[in-house]
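Narrative of accomplishments. A recurring question from our advisory board has been how the design workflow behaves on a single, concrete structure rather than in aggregate. To address it, we present the structure tokens for one chain from the evaluation set, followed by the sequence designed for it. No filtering or post-editing was applied between the two.
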């Protein structure tokens, strides 16, 4: 059953203790080497620190296994995914690779690239330790192919509190309000919104659609219950173009980190980005609510547009037993509590140590586990669209930002 046909409902609040134990896998032979090659895109500032913390915990618990870091730099894995696709096609898989929870994995499952790892879920009791809706997002025809290490939130508006205070502004709660503020900011020589490469534009689109159409309307775009050609969707798309007009899309170069740098420097007022921004900004020595602050992206308060990084067991992984130990690490309390405070994400597990999450992350964990919070899945980061549909959106968006034809975009992206 496809995730797109379901409503995501994440149940919070379940607290069960778990002590780590090791498994030896299903008996499939491996090459016995004490090494594990792990493929991810966590190579840039703010991301590599999280991976390093996870690896440090892994090393401590698996002193005999050397960690071979096959990370390929580039936000949202746009470059890494191309490299990985070639490796998988050439039957040269790493021992484990990063993928998002949700429909992103469907083509790899169809191609037979990944193994069903329910046996690890059974051995490690993961189903009882993870939110129900997350397990659903990881389940394809009753099988599970990856282990989640975190929960990120996509719908966030980052800003520089001193800049807003000096101008008497507070973060806009609707995109219309953002446009009003943008006019004032522009007149003062401040860029209203910084942006980066194509995937950050898609990320912004997702946040504008969510803010304008609401949680149900946004989710309906992906499960077929919202009409892309209806007036409300068309208006939201037209608004996205107007929002984009307030950005530096014409001149922006570099990945998501330089776009955030402009907010920190006070040359831009706002940036829409997931909460990996929190990790990055902390690596610059900035303090939450002093050097930077955050609000839900306009119109999406109390909604958690979630994504989850997870790791797979590829078919033909050269070092299967070591890969299993890596997956166990990713799914463990100690792994998640080492990784997430550095990564700017909250743990996927419900029984993690909340005291380890401070600053922005204390707010994030409170919202994530609040039963009143509405959960929707990210488009840009793999939850609500498979790779084929997501690529169709990418191609259509590249044209849309040029020709601004909302009907044409709806026809191409509507699926
Ligand atoms: C997302 C990923 C995050 C973060 C971000 C920016 O796709 O899930 O963990 O790495 O890209 O690179």
């Amino acid at each position: 059953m496809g995730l797109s046909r379901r409503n995501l409902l994440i149940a919070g609040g379940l607290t069960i203790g778990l002590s780590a134990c090791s498994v030896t896998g299903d008996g499939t032979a491996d090459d016995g080497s004490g090494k594990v090659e792990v493929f991810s895109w966590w190579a840039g500032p703010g991301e590599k620190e999280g991976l390093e913390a996870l690896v440090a915990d892994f090393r401590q618990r698996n002193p005999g296994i050397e960690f071979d870091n096959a990370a390929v730099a580039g936000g949202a894995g746009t470059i890494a995914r191309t490299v990985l696709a070639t490796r998988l096609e050439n039957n040269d898989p790493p021992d484990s690779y990063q993928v998002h929870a949700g429909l992103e994995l469907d083509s790899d499952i169809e191609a037979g690239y990944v193994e069903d790892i329910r046996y690890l879920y059974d051995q490690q009791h993961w189903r009882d330790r993870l939110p129900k809706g997350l397990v659903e997002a990881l389940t394809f025809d009753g099988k599970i192919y990856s282990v989640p290490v975190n929960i990120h939130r996509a719908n966030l508006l980052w800003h520089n509190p001193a800049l807003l205070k000096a101008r008497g502004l507070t973060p806009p709660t609707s995109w219309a309000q953002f446009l009003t503020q943008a006019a004032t900011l522009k007149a003062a020589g401040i860029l209203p919104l910084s942006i980066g490469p194509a995937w950050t534009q898609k990320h912004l689109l997702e946040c504008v659609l969510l803010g304008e159409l609401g949680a149900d309307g946004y989710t309906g775009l992906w499960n077929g219950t919202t009409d892309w050609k209806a007036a409300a969707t068309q208006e939201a798309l037209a608004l996205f173009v107007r929002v984009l007009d307030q950005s530096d899309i014409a001149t922006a170069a570099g990945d998501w980190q330089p776009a955030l740098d402009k907010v920190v420097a006070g040359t831009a007022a706002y940036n829409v980005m997931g909460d990996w921004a929190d990790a990055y900004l902390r690596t610059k020595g900035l303090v939450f609510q002093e050097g930077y602050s955050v609000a839900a992206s306009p119109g999406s308060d109390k909604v958690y547009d979630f994504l989850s990084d997870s790791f797979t067991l590829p078919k033909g992984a050269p070092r299967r037993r070591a890969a299993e130990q890596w997956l166990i690490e990713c799914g463990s309390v100690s792994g998640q509590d080492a990784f997430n405070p550095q990564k700017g994400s909250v743990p996927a597990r419900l029984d993690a140590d909340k005291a380890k999450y401070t600053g922005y992350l204390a707010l994030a964990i409170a919202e994530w586990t609040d039963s009143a919070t509405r959960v929707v899945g990210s488009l840009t980061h793999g939850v609500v669209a498979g790779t084929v549909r997501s690529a169709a959106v990418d191609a259509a968006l590249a044209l849309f930002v040029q020709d601004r034809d909302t009907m044409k975009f709806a026809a191409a992206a509507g699926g």
